[in-house]
Amino acid sequence: MSTNITYMVTMDMAFRMLMRGILTPCEYRSFFARMHQKYGCEEVRILYQSKLDIFLNQSVNG
């Protein structure tokens, strides 16, 4: 359970960096893939994939 929390906290920081323009979507995806490979929690992957999809959709439409 604590590894899932570590995964979520790290991805949350990365997502905030994406929203601020510090990371590009490509950099975020690459980091995200490595994090999923390391932690392997499908529920967390789905959560952050959804957040990325919404962010990209808003970027295109907004």
Order of helices and strands: HHH
Q: Which secondary-structure class do the elements indicate?
A: mainly alpha
Number of strands: 0
CA-based shape: globular
Rg measurement, Å: 11 Å
Which ranges are low-confidence, i.e. pLDDT below 50, for 5 or more consecutive residues?
Answer: none
Give the count of helical stretches.
3
Between the first and last Cα atoms, what is the distance in angstroms?
37 Å
Strand % is under 5%
Mean of pLDDT: 92
Helix content: over 70%
What's the main sheet like? none
Draw up the topology in text.
Elements: H1 2-19, H2 25-39, H3 42-61
Helix pairs in contact: 1-2, 1-3
Provide a compact summary of the structure:
Helix content is 85%, strand content 0%.
Write structural notes for this entry:
The protein has 62 residues and is mainly alpha-helical. It is built from three helices and no strands. Helix 1 runs antiparallel to helix 2 (25-39) and helix 1 (2-19) packs parallel to helix 3 (42-61). The protein is globular and about 35 Å long. The termini are far apart. The model has no long low-confidence stretch (mean pLDDT 92).
Key attributes of the depicted protein:
mainly alpha
